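Q: How would the structure tokens look for this protein?
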Amino acid sequence: QVQMIESGGGSAQAGGSLSLSCIPSKATNYAMGWFRQTPGKEGEGVSCISSTDGITHYEDSVKGRFTISRDKANNTVYLEMNSLKHEDTGVYYCAADPRSGYVCYMTLVEYEFWGQGTQVTVSS
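A: Here is the predicted structure in token form.
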């Protein structure tokens, strides 16, 4: 069993930035994804990165504002969030997909291991 530990959530003003981190409890080379639960949408895929780091995807509303990356030295996956908007407010979850090979998916069903979530609040 692999545990995902998220950190970095908090409050920011619209136009500001936050950086989220996801640290697996042990080393993996899994595809990783970030999902969020907002007042308007449940289980929305935000971004994902393949196990090889060669493929990334972003939800349309965050393209150009959010960046996903991985530090292979410590297996930490980051979500850098810039130009934050009020509608970005929600609980953000990181998740690991152990089976998707060289691709990653923006749907919940592929992911097996989940973090507990971290709250992001953006003031309007």
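The mean pLDDT is 94.

Residues 68 and 108 are 17 Å apart (CA to CA).

Upvote if useful.
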